[in-house]
Amino acid sequence: MSRVIGKEEVADLVREALPKLAFELPSDIQAGLADALERETSPRAAEVLRLLVENARIAREDRVAICQDTGSVWVCLEIGPDVCIAGDVLDGVDEAVAYAYTEGNLRKSLVRDALFDRSNTGDNTPAFAEIHTSELPGARVHLMCKGGGSDNASRVVMLTPSAGRQGIIEAVLACVREKAANACPPLIIGVGVGSTFDKVAGLAKIALMRPLDVPAPDEMTDALERELLEAVNATGIGAAALGGKTTAIGVRVKTAPCHIAALPLAVNMGCSAMRRGTFEL
Amino acid sequence: MAEKCGMLGSAGQDAVRLRLPLDRDQLRELRAGDACTLTGPLYTLRDAGHMRLLAELEEKDGGELPYGLDGQAIFYAGPTPAAAGRPFGAIGPTTASRMDFAAPLLHDRGIAATIGKGVRSEAVREACVRNGAVYFVAVGGAAAYLAKCVTSEQTLSYDDLGTEALRRIEVVDFPVFVGIDTLGNDVYEEVQRTALGL
Question: Which chain A residues have a beta carbon less than 8 Å from that of B7?
């Protein structure tokens, strides 16, 4: 018997979850920053990390935004084989976003059109919403409030198959060296490898959803994540890019099939105020 | 000589306490990487506001900077609305390089300092040297903390831009690091050099 999920259920979830995301840094990110502070030997980086840990406490206790850039809202409704939806299931999302951003005193950071009308929409809509199907039963909503600075520091590179694993590592490191300073480190780096030009960025984004305390589903991915994290932190860029041991507190990799000619790579930078969460419906 | 004080009461590096508007002689004593605190008025302006300001300057064709900006410091920031009894719930730096198109001209016209995050262009560095100006780095992602350093705010212009309006805000002990000093030293370049073992 299929369960039917309607637009009200999705909208209600988004309306309730957004303030929590804006005010409360996810516990795995908090733990990552606290660990980094404990390890740090550079006084300047330690000062930055202390400030970020204190910042999360203030935001949580005073119910104010962790970062002034409260982001564009990404909503990904994931449904299993036992779930039915109608074509309008996402139609309540924008109203929920407008409500949450207005009532929560969050910043409105969206313009009407990227090129032809850069006037502010005034309520942080539209959200960027999509539907994924999954083999997992039930339904859940992945939410991310994505800051502009870290998204700007992201990129898609179409590598050739011969570049291989080493090519992926070098391209990720190049992106970190060039862009980390703009992306508010310590970073959480989402890496997508495979699929097609348009889909690989989505892979990198969904990779960011896996919490830092949940290991990769297979050994090869886990090994690559560890190697990338070590290499990124060996750059010495550090917190706020002012030098230090921790440039990233996590690297998350998601791979997929692709064309014989292709090795698509996407790097989606997540900032130290990584606001994301998965909520069961 | 600038007064030294403990950075945010921590055991870390000493911070130089600076008053706004900034004293140019004091600016010359700062070095890239120094921790400082700022107290006094700052002016928030970011992408769309800079485009407006430059269009106004072009129209005026000379004369003093409008809105009392001469000699002041621009903070690249778009705050959230008021919250928790404070002028803003959160306010922090945005990526400074997006304002590189405007910074050299604004320094030449009298802006003493900019505050943001991330690497600047060579043209901005040269403008700092040419004008005895400084680029300060604030910590991105610490906006709830930084909002507690803001005591008041007043919108001066471009109100229709929402968060991107030109505002005059008063800050107390606002923590920053020197990103580019008046000699053109760049903290990010120094970090990069150290990282590469050069």
Answer: 47
CB-based contact B27:B107 (threshold 8 Å): no
Whether residue A112 lies within 8 A of chain B, CB to CB, comes out as no
User: Longest Cα pair distance anywhere in chain B, in angstroms?
Assistant: 50
Tell me whether residue B59 is exposed, middle or buried, using C-beta atoms within 10 angstroms of its C-beta: 0 to 12, 13 to 18, 19 or more.
Answer: exposed
Q: Is the pTM higher than 0.80?
A: yes
- Does ipTM exceed 0.90? yes
Q: Would you list the domain boundaries of chain B? A: 39-195
Q: Smallest Cβ distance to B187: which of A66, A242, A273?
A: A242
Domain boundaries, chain A: 148-273
Q: What is the CATH number of domain B39-195?
A: 3.20.130.10
Q: What is the pLDDT of residues B36-78, one digit of tens each?
A: 999 999 999 999 999 999 999 999 877 889 999 999 999 999 9
**Which has the closest alpha carbon to B105: B168, B61, B160?**
B61
Q: What angle do CA A213, A222, A36 make, to 5 degrees?
A: 45
Q: Chain A residue with minimal CA distance to B47?
A: A118
